[in-house]
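Interim report, section 4.2 (structural modelling).
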Amino acid sequence: MKLKAIIEKLNLKVLTAQEKLDKEVTGGYTSDLLSDVIANSKEGDLWITLQTHQNIIAVAKLKDLAGIVIVSNREPDEDTQKKAQEESVPLMISGERAFEISGKLYGLIGS
Amino acid sequence: MGIENGLSQTFEITGNDFSKAGSISTTVKEILQEIGIDSSVIRRAAIASYEAEMNVVMYADKGQLILTVTPEKFTISVEDEGQGIENIELAMQEGYSTATEEMREMGFGAGMGLPNIKKNSDEFEIASIPGKGTSLKMTFNLDTKKEK
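Predicted structure of the assembly:
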């Protein structure tokens, strides 16, 4: 499913990289540990996390993730948004918690 | 980019600079992609390189990452000047970490760094002198038959 469609269905607010929303999302990964995400996420995953600092962007970029959803209405740091824009990584926020967003995403694309 | 004669590139890593952390690994990945290395090998190298780079940022004053590519293999060497590792055996254990509370809150310090590096490289060497620094050498074979 395209990221654009997921954004609509999950009611996500897009902060950066509007030009990358045509990307195909092939899975999801929910974790706040960066080493875990680096080791175990897959290309095309939508990453669900509560981390808001700038280092999440390099992780998403290195792993070719489809984008990052920051949960519980947490506002990403200014540096994070700037870096996401520079690196063309879609950064989104949701008012829901990781459990709800993950469950809904799984309902949409989980196999 | 021709690699018949090999290619070697050195990158400087600044300790405690979280703003650039991960950028060298991103560049290394781009170089490997440009050379046309198999994507499954690049995936492993990116994980190992990122963890090694982060270790320098978190625990050392400064360091260097050297990427060397030959037709048969490539190596990523990371050498730093910093606190070093007291007990390498312990540091290699999954879950063991000396990260500060602040690093843990950022999602680092899961004790997965060195184990991830070892798991994702074909050969892995580590040496450290406490109070001086640490050096890592990760080798990735380009012969796909030998791939893990």
